[in-house]
Design a protein that fits this description.
217 residues, alpha/beta, Methyltransferase, Methionine Synthase (B12-binding Domains), Chain A, domain 1, Rossmann fold, 2 domains, five-stranded parallel sheet, 9 helices, 5 strands, elongated
Length: 217
């Protein structure tokens, strides 16, 4: 069993969707429970990928390839989990978007990938998102966290507008607002009253996990 799960982890780390599918099918045929395959095969593999990316030992194309392999494996596991009445643990619900006036999304997209692989339910609003849309979607989806990206110094102030909008709408402190992007810093996050700052995708995932733990007894 350990060998099969290692094959699954390796296929995801290497970004090989077809091999990941094959490894999952082999694991299921050998009697490995779907949740075991997910939690001890898929998730640790993506954690490894995220860590290597954070250390600059892997690059964006590698992460995207691993994400596709992860999706391929999960696509095989999910029907089996439903048959058994198993549910994948959801750590929290996150809404992501890039602020109005800004069209950059590669970094935000990577955050979405890693959050999803880490057990979060992610809703990506895309780019050019006004503060009111962040707020209405967070209310509609009962989001735990909203991630607001800005890649330009000229659009950073829109992050402040999002925080203020959430305050006006009475959504905080129930919904945590976190910020990120190239010109953003912890100092800026503190200044605008955000609940946290992620300097990169892995930091954003760690922050999301930390915020969810604080809200749970």
């Amino acid at each position: 069993m350990d060998d099969i799960l290692q094959q699954l982890r390796q296929a995801i780390m290497d970004g090989m969707p077809s091999m990941a599918k094959e490894a999952v099918r082999k694991a299921l045929a050998e009697g490995v429970e779907p949740m075991v395959a997910l939690n001890t095969g898929c998730v640790p593999a993506m954690d490894y990928v995220g860590e290597r990316f954070g250390c600059r030992e892997m690059f964006l194309p590698d992460v995207l390839a691993s994400s596709e392999a992860m999706k391929a494996a999960v696509a095989v596991l999910e029907p089996e989990m439903r048959k058994r009445g198993d549910e994948r643990q959801v750590h929290g619900r996150v809404v992501l978007g890039t602020v109005k006036g800004d069209i950059h999304e590669i970094g935000k997209g990577l955050v979405a990938i890693l959050l999803g692989a880490s057990g979060f339910e992610v809703y990506d609003l895309g780019v050019g998102v006004p503060p009111e849309v962040f707020a209405s979607k967070a209310r509609e989806l009962k989001a735990d966290i909203v991630g607001v990206s800005a890649l330009l110094t000229t659009t950073m102030n829109l992050q402040r507008d999002v925080v203020q909008c959430f305050d006006r709408e009475g959504l905080r402190p129930g919904v945590k607002v976190i910020v990120g992007g190239a010109p953003v810093s912890q100092r800026w996050a503190t200044e605008i009253g955000a609940d946290g700052y992620g300097k990169d995708a892995m930091s954003a995932v760690a922050l999301a996990r930390s915020l969810m733990k604080k809200d749970r007894p």
